[in-house]
Amino acid sequence: MTTTSLETDNTERWHAMAILPHYAPLFAHVANELVANKARYLQTQVDTRVPWAIVAVIHEREASQSWAANLAQGDPWDRPSIHVPRGRGPFHSWEAAACDALLKCPPYTGQNDDWSIGGALVALEEYNGLGYEKYHHMASPYLWAGTSQYTRGKYVADGHFDPEAVDHQLGCAGLLRAMMALDDTITFASTTTTTET
What we know:
Layout: H1 3-16, H2 24-36, H3 38-48, H4 52-63, H5 94-103, H6 117-128, H7 131-136, H8 141-144, E1 154-157, E2 160-162, H9 172-182, E3 186-188, E4 193-195
């Protein structure tokens, strides 16, 4: 697997994706909350060059939008983290922790320069880890849970995959689609993502 082939696969999944009907109200609700916090995510975009909508969906996946939790892995940011990446912090603010997660922790998301939809989805998948593609040849629930592109299979802990487990957390791709329905400044061009203020 190369990131180029993963980008192609994820771009095709994006265009084929449908949000599952029973998840649609939840996607809409969560997307509304994420868009409501746009100003705060925009500050992180300024500091890291990561589009605010990408920061927002990571915040939902990693920390259920808790401002007390680190964007890196959901641990409290005011003390050293105990989950991967371990030993980060303490920080003086959520924003400082977010900058550390995006700029100083693998996969160094702030260094990404491809914010097309394919590039953005690869960056999100790398943020969670490429184990789904590399070892199980499946669509990552981190991106696709709650959509037509995902059925089952989940890492239930770091390094522990359960083929029958179902991820009930909303996936980043569906969240992005729902956010785009609310905020037309979120766009994914052929070579860049535009997230205007």
